[in-house]
Every structure is written in C-alpha cells, then in structure tokens.
C-alpha cells in the first residue's frame, strides 16, 4: 500500500487529465533531510494538538462542570461521549435503523433483478426505475407521513414548470425562482402546519412520519429539482446522445442529454426521491442518474467492500474523538474561561475536524448504500480537512458533488471564468443562504469569497508555469499557504463553530495578548512545515499519474 492510497480514489483523478501535466514532477523529497525534519516536527505537533483537547476534557479541569450536562453515557473505556451535535446525533442514534433500511432496499432490489433476469436478458437497468419509484413512494410515506401532502405538490409544480416551458429560457428562470421561494417559505413557516390552514386539519400534524422535519432536508431535494429542470431545458435545445454510446465517463454522463421521453414524471420522482441518496446526498444530476440505468456501470464487489472498510474506520475514528475530546460541548456552552489562545485554537480546530468527520460519515454511508445498489454517486470528501492549503482546492474536495452542481448550474451559466470574482461572490452567497438563512452564514459566504481573491492574485502574479522551477518558489507558496489556511479556518470558525461573538473573543485573545501572538507565530511555523508536506503529497500523486486538482 502506498502513502497516496490513504486518499479515496475518484475516477476523474486517473483520467486523461492526469496526462496533461506540463512538466515532469521532481524527484521525491520524502527522504531528504529537509522533509525528515518537517515530518518529525509535524508528528510531535500533532501529538500536542491531540493532547490539548483531551486535557481540556478531563473531569478535573475547572471548566468540566460547565459542559458536563451535555455529555452522554458512552461505550468506550468507561468514558462519557459528546453526543451533543444535533445533526450527527440524529445519524448516530438512528444508525441501526438506517442499516436495516439499506439492507431491506438491497434485498428487495436483488429479488427484482433476479425476477427480471429470469424473464429476459437484461442489457440495461431501465426496469429498475419503476422499482426505485415504488421504493421511493414507500420511503416517502414512512419518513414524512401526512407531510407528503405538502411536498408532493412542490415536486409536481416544479415538474410542470419545466415541461410547460420546454426549450424556452423561461423554464430554468421560473424553476429557479420557484425553488428559491420555496426554500424561504419552508424556513419562514417551519415546514407549514395543517392547523395553521384550518383548525379541523390540525389532527394531520400528529401523523408526520418518522422524520417530520422534512423542510430541513428539502435543501438537498431542491438541488435535484433544479438539476432536472436545467437538464431538461438543455435536452430540449440539443440533440440527444446516440443509444450506441459506450464507456461514458463521469463528465459525459452529466452533459450528454437523453431523448425527451426519458424526462418523464416517473423517472423524475424516481430520481428526486431515490432512497439511498434522498436524505443527505451525494448529489447526482438527473442526466447521470438516467445514464447509470441506461448504461449500467461495472462496480466491482471488492471496490464496495473496500469503501465499506473506509467508512467503518472513519466511524470508529469519530467515536474515539467524541469519547476523548468534548470540544462540541465546550463550544456550545462557551466553556473556555481561563483557556489560553492555544487551547481555544484547539477547541476551534477539533470542532472543524468533527464537522468534517460527521459530514464525511453521513455522505459515505449513503454513497456506500448507492454503490451497493449499482449507482456511483460522486465522492463528497476527497481529502482530510487538515490536508488543504488552497481555498479553491478546498472547495473542490469538500462536498465535492455540491461543488460540481454549483459549477454546472450556477458558475458556468453565469459566465464562469470571464468574471471570476463576481461569480465566486454569487456562488458563495447562494451557498451560505442554501445552508441556513442566517446572517452568520451569509457573512461566512462573503468571507470565503473575499479570501479567495488573494490566492487568485498570487496565481496570476507568480504562475507555476513561469516560476515553478525556481528554488524559492516552493517556499513562497508555503508562505502563501499559511495565510490561506489561517483565513479558511477563520471563515469556517465563524460559519460553523464559534459564530461572530466567539470569533471576536478568540481574535482579541490572539492578537492583543503576548501569549496569543506567540501562539500565532508558532502556529504559522507549524503550518509552513505542514504545507511542504501537503505539496510533496500531491507531487507524489502526480508521479503516480494521479491529478486530483485539490
């Protein structure tokens, strides 16, 4: 096993793009004195970074009783567990039920396949669209109960808008307006209540299914509604692909249109409510979903088992962190009185690691379910959160399927690279509001847009093609990486961890105390060394024909 095999494989990373390298990567530097020093230094620092939150989580720490009420009974080594993150708690507590649901779906699909193969020699999986439709309806009713009376009209109206306008530009325009309006109304009315419509209908609010808060996950559904509308609009304005096409790559499956008959209501509902991907994604475009039924992919069983092992390892890693580092509870209760800037920094850092791990576990479970069912959805998390030095690269590897969706349906239609800064501002404003209609996340979106500008400017003034061979270039990039990482951490701490008030306190401790300034200098030195290791890791990938662009 190679070091680079620790990063999950994606088909695009070893495609023809990897052969488009302008120059041969330099010889490996891992065994040089410089990189051995970096490696030993970072190894020691990582141990310290782990030890700090474990110490802060000790029952003897002065702040322990502040966050103790948010801890739950654990199962590892007699320790309590920090199960206070609401999103991950829902997934963690319902994990056995999700496994049973996935198992039931896969068994039913297996039986359906056997029956079909007995009756006819299958060349495609189009017959599974009806099965997926039926399974989706059953899941839909079980999850949302009477709320299907609210959701079904939304789905149907979006479909009718698309079909009504066809090749007209009014189709995607009206669909976008409708879906954005629904997002705001869902949030404003908290999913709507029958009792608010008529007192006689209030009893329906008692039968809202296993997951009554449908409006929370509707943000994901909205992406599929827009995908169908835009893909159908483009299909009406371009010839459909030949039935004889073979060996489509992931890019072609997104862009090649289908015959208009494929954009039917049954296929639409089958796609929008596809059980393995419905609740959390990853996001699959409508075109891709249908292509994977028209031209089924060969997904080796070994690949599925390997991915399952990755998922289980990540789950256990998360369990270990939650049992030994109670940083989420500290963050929620603001239990950092008397903590040093280094300790506060580690509370923020490990909260970001937990955000990364919880989302990765969610997405990998549902992607694993889809893979076992024969559908290859995009991998959402390619790299570890701590293995990123570029703001642009970070967003390519974090929630990757969402990034691909943004490129296809917002960034490129809005002009793409012809006006990068304005389009980035537009994209991240949408991203922030899509996540949550709050000023904190809107401010986060604007911060991210602002922090991308220095990297774009540096790439323009110091292009690798011109200066990459200079001895100083790698070190200059590492200095830039330090600023990039600090800015990305600041933006994400505001958006997802500390909020504006917590960040103000942290900044005051960091920049206006001697201890804070010492920590900032020390952290910058650590990040400088870490950036060099990240650079070399990517050079190692290039030497092995892998180009992940993140």
From TrEMBL:
InterPro entries: MB_O-acyltransferase, MBOAT_fam
Main location class: membrane
Topology versus the membrane: Multi-pass membrane protein
GO cellular component assignments: endoplasmic reticulum; membrane
Segment forming the signal sequence: none
Keywords: Membrane, Transmembrane, Transmembrane helix
GO molecular function terms noted in the UniProt entry: O-acyltransferase activity
Cell compartments where the protein resides: Membrane
Coiled coil ranges: none
One family name in Pfam for this protein: MBOAT
A biological process from GO: GPI anchor biosynthetic process
Membership in a protein family: Belongs to the membrane-bound acyltransferase family.
Protein name: MBOAT, membrane-bound O-acyltransferase family-domain-containing protein
Source species of the chain: Mycena metata
């Amino acid at each position: 096993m190679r070091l680079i095999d620790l990063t999950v494989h994606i088909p695009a990373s070893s495609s023809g793009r990897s052969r488009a390298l302008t120059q041969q990567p330099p010889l490996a530097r891992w065994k040089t004195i410089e990189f051995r020093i970096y490696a030993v230094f970072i190894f020691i620092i990582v141990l310290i970074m782990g030890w700090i939150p474990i110490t802060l989580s000790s029952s003897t720490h002065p702040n322990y009783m502040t966050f103790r009420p948010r801890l739950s009974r654990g199962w590892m080594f007699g320790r309590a567990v920090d199960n206070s993150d609401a999103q991950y708690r829902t997934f963690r507590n319902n994990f056995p039920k999700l496994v049973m649901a996935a198992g039931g779906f896969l068994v039913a699909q297996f039986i359906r396949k056997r029956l079909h193969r007995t009756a006819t020699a299958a060349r495609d999986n189009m017959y599974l669209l009806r099965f997926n439709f039926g399974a989706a309806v059953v899941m839909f009713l079980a999850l949302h109960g009477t709320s299907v009376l609210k959701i079904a009209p939304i789905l149907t109206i979006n479909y009718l808008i698309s079909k009504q306008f066809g090749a007209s530009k009014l189709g995607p325009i009206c669909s976008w307006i409708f879906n954005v309006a629904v997002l705001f109304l869902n949030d404003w009315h908290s999913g709507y209540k029958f009792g608010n419509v008529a007192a006689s209908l209030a009893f329906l609010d008692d039968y809202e299914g296993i997951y009554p808060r449908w409006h929370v996950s509707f943000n994901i559904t909205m992406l599929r509604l827009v995908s169908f509308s835009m893909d159908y609009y483009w299909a009406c304005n371009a010839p459909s692909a030949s039935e004889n096409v073979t060996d489509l790559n992931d890019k072609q499956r997104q862009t090649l249109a289908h015959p208009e008959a494929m954009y039917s209501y049954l296929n639409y509902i089958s796609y929008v409510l596809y059980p393995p991907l419905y609740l959390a994604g990853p996001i699959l475009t409508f075109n891709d979903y249908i292509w994977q039924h028209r031209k089924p992919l060969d997904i080796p069983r070994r690949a599925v088992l390997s991915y399952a092992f990755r998922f289980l390892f990540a789950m256990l890693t998360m369990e270990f962190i939650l049992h030994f580092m109670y940083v989420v509870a500290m963050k929620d209760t603001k239990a950092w009185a008397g903590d040093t800037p280094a300790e506060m920094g580690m509370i923020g850092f490990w909260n970001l690691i937990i955000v990364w791990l919880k989302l990765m576990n969610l997405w990998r479970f549902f992607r694993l379910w889809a893979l076992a069912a024969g559908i290859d959805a995009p991998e959402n998390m390619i790299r570890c959160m701590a293995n990123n030095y570029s703001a642009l690269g970070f967003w390519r590897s974090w929630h990757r399927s969402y990034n691909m969706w943004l490129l296809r349906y917002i960034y490129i239609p809005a002009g793409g690279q012809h006006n990068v800064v304005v389009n980035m501002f537009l994209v991240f404003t949408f991203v922030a509001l899509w996540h949550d209609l709050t000023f904190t996340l809107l401010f986060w979106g604007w911060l991210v847009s602002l922090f991308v500008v220095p990297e774009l400017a540096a790439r323009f003034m110091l292009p690798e093609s011109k200066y990459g061979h200079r001895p100083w270039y790698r070190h200059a990039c590492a200095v830039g990486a330090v600023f990039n990482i600090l800015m990305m951490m600041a933006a994400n701490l505001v958006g997802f961890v500390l909020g504006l008030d917590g960040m103000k306190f942290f900044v005051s401790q960091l920049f206006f105390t001697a201890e804070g300034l010492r920590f900032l200098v020390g952290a910058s030195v650590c990040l400088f060394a870490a950036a060099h290791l990240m650079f070399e890791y990517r050079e190692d990938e290039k030497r092995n024909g892998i180009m992940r662009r993140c």
